[in-house]
Amino acid sequence: MIKPILAIAMTALLLTAASAHDVGDKDAKVTLVYEHALPNVPGKSIKSVLVEYGPGGFSAAHTHPSSSFIYATVLEGAIRSQVNDGPIKVYKAGESFSEMPGDRHGVSENASKTEPAKLLAVFVLDSAQQELTFPIKR
Questions:
Q1: Per-residue pLDDT at 24 exceeds 60
Q2: For residue 112, what are the CA distances in angstroms to 26, 39, 78?
Q3: Would you kindly state where each structural domain of the chain is located, as residue ranges?
Q4: 17: pLDDT confidence band, cut at 50, 70 and 90?
């Protein structure tokens, strides 16, 4: 089931990528590129976001809705990531990782200070859920 979902998300990404612009500041740019209710799973939807990191860019520590399962794949560059208290890992273009419901994403950043990076995150979550990211208060 993941392969058809990824194919749909990638198609949506390609349709919107031409309109995306370069990220110039340190905060990641997040763009919703796909959203659809799952007809065979009542109450669940799929949403995909393109996360663009400029050189040295990052996302603040965050969590996602407790109903969400996330499959993420690096499209360009390399992403440094830490989920929960696990090790910090670097994922390169073509590599993927998952986040389970309730996971805490403490590190999410471009591994390069000179090149951009892009990540496609595919969420499966409750259809009523609108917000996808919640900052962790320090």
A1: no
A2: 12, 40, 7
A3: 2-128
A4: very low
Q: Which residue has the higher pLDDT, 82 or 14?
A: 82
Of 128, 134, 125, 135, nearest to 100 (Cα)?
125
Phi-psi region of 29 (alpha: psi -120 to 50; beta: other; left: phi over 0): beta
∠ CA 60-63-78 to the nearest 5 degrees? 55
CATH architecture of 2-128: Sandwich (2.60)
| Cα radius of gyration rounded to whole Å, the chain | 14
> Pseudo-torsion of CA 30, 137, 88, 125, nearest 10°?
-50
Distance CA 76, CA 52 (A): 9
* pTM for this prediction: 0.79
Query: In the structure encoding, which two tokens stand for residue 128, read together?
Result: 């009523």
Residue 110 has phi, psi (to 5 degrees) of -65, 130
Taking the C-alpha atoms of residue 97 and residue 118, their distance in angstroms, rounded to an integer, is 14
Which H or E run contains 106? strand 104-110
Whose structure tokens read 């400029």? 54
- Determine contact, residues 101/68, Cβ cutoff 8 Å: yes
